[in-house]
Design a protein that fits this description.
about 30% strand; about 220 residues; alpha+beta; Cyclophilin; 8-stranded antiparallel barrel; 4 helices; about 15% helix
Length: about 220
């Protein structure tokens, strides 16, 4: 391929919305905030799209800044039956209400212009609008069925992976079982620990007040 063609291809990939090529993992880009998710099998670096999905991005960053993701897990690996190397992984606070913040307003892809492409970062939610809190997922391969269309509100894409997709794929491949409904057979048998999530750009803005999940951690056992 000629040098001019290579330059055009690189420019096209950089402009793709929601693409993992939107910016490098080691350099900040205006409008995005990078977050390092340190897991027991490696580090994933994601970038939140603060311009196109401001509410969802801000919610995720608050969980990061508060330390609400420190010590939780990736607990779901949903592999496609047609190709087990594709699918999604899901992590976050799961059902730990002590770590939760109030639900946020849904930002559908029809409003943000983002799409569920390969390496997209998106919010998990119950089967109703305006209910997402502290659980998120990462796609492996394009997942257009997550995009909003017609009366279907879809899921709120709000960023993408810029580093560590090898770690994402490693988590997708771990053994699973159990679960019910659409998650049947997709729960990770030995959940992957999220050791820490920390922002790499900007100033953290932690919420004030008591952090219920931390209460009692430093208490000495009674004799």
């Amino acid at each position: 391929m000629r040098p001019a063609a290579l330059c055009c291809l690189a420019l096209l990939l950089a402009l793709l919305p929601g693409s993992a090529f939107a910016q490098p993992a080691n350099r900040p880009t205006p409008g995005y905030t990078r977050v390092a998710i340190e897991t027991s099998v490696g580090t994933i670096i994601v970038a939140t799209d603060n311009r196109r999905a401001p509410l969802t991005a801000a919610n995720f960053l608050t969980y990061v800044d508060d330390g609400r993701f420190d010590g939780v897990t990736f607990y779901r690996a949903a592999r496609r039956k047609s190709d087990p190397k594709l699918g999604l992984i899901q992590g976050g606070i799961d059902t730990d209400a002590r770590r939760s913040l109030p639900p946020i307003r849904h930002e559908p892809t029809t409003r943000t212009g983002l799409r569920h492409l390969d390496a997209t970062l998106s919010m998990a939610r119950p089967n109703r609008a305006n209910s997402a809190m502290g659980n998120f997922f990462i796609t492996i391969g394009p997942t257009p069925n997550m995009d909003a269309r017609g009366d279907y509100i879809g899921y709120a894409a709000f960023g993408h992976v810029v580093g560590g997709m090898d770690v994402v794929k490693k988590i997708l491949a771990v053994p699973t079982c159990c679960g019910s409904g659409p998650m049947r057979g997709q729960m990770i048998i030995r959940p992957i620990a999220i050791i820490r999530a920390k922002r790499l750009d900007g100033t953290p803005h932690a919420t004030r007040g008591v952090k219920p999940w931390l209460l009692g951690l430093n208490r000495k056992p009674a004799r």
